């Protein structure tokens, strides 16, 4: 932030000096300053929304929007920053205020629904999404629609919305993972396995999808590791997941062997697997 301030001061001085050298009037100098301030504020807003510390961004937008209550972009910035700062309840309030302002649009309502879901207000989120016309087709809108349908156990609607959402983005890995988890909770283990595998074709580093893939396979009593890229540590962790799943399903001997394999595979001391194996042995002795 110090570098931004220094650059701003340099540009500001240059603008004033340029105006003075031309023998400009006071009004022209003020206009030059106004232009510089607008440019600088736009850049600062972008920084605050992306790379700035979330709490610092909240403080900045709260202060700036309070000083300029009619500027919707500042209130939007505050709402976005509150989400980034992990304050969804306050973010929902900010988005509701955005929707009361001139210039509010359907994307703002989608963001409001997102904040409501983050606040665990699913019914309210559904009501807001219902206000958006079907012609407003965006990835985030349909991803949220799918999540709401999931929460209502409306599986056909959820599948339809997930499919639309995936078609509207070039980075569908997270949504495919969510869709797969939905299938997993329904007991459609083969369908879940397929979706987790597809998610990994878009992002081979998504460990959550790898872990979920192992869970889906283990639910079908397929305890061998899937053929996906993984580090040695990840492999040990995934074998541990398969081991716990096997034990939960009553395949205790298989689970015991997998726990030992996880311990042997991990390049360091694998405390969680060791404790699981010790607990299993203690239970067997009792």
Which second-level CATH architecture of the domain at 1-8 and 33-104 applies?
A: Alpha Horseshoe
* CATH class placement of the domain at 1-8 and 33-104: Mainly Alpha
Question: Which class of secondary structure composition applies to the elements?
Answer: mainly alpha
Taken in chain order, the helices and strands follow as: HHHHHHHHHHHHHHH
Could you give the distance between the termini? 62 Å
Helix content: over 70%
What's the number of extended β-strand segments?
0
Biggest β-sheet description: none
Q: Provide the residue-averaged pLDDT.
A: 88
Strand content: under 5%
- List low-pLDDT spans: 1-23, 31-36
Q: What is the alpha-carbon Rg in Å?
A: 26 Å
Q: What sort of overall outline do the alpha carbons produce when their principal axes are compared?
A: elongated
CATH fold label of the domain at 1-8 and 33-104: Serine Threonine Protein Phosphatase 5, Tetratricopeptide repeat
Helix run count:
15
Pfam families: TPR_19 (PF14559)
Protein name: Tetratricopeptide repeat protein
Organism: Kangsaoukella pontilimi
Question: If you had to describe this structure to a student in words, what would you say it looks like?
Answer:
By secondary structure, this protein is mainly α. Among the domains are: 80 residues, Alpha Horseshoe (Serine Threonine Protein Phosphatase 5, Tetratricopeptide repeat); 56 residues, no CATH class. The protein contains 15 helices and no strands. Helix 10 packs parallel to helix 12 and helix 14 runs antiparallel to helix 15. It is elongated. The termini are far apart. The N terminus is likely disordered. It comes from Kangsaoukella pontilimi. This is Tetratricopeptide repeat protein. It holds the Pfam family TPR_19. InterPro entries: TPR-like_helical_dom_sf.
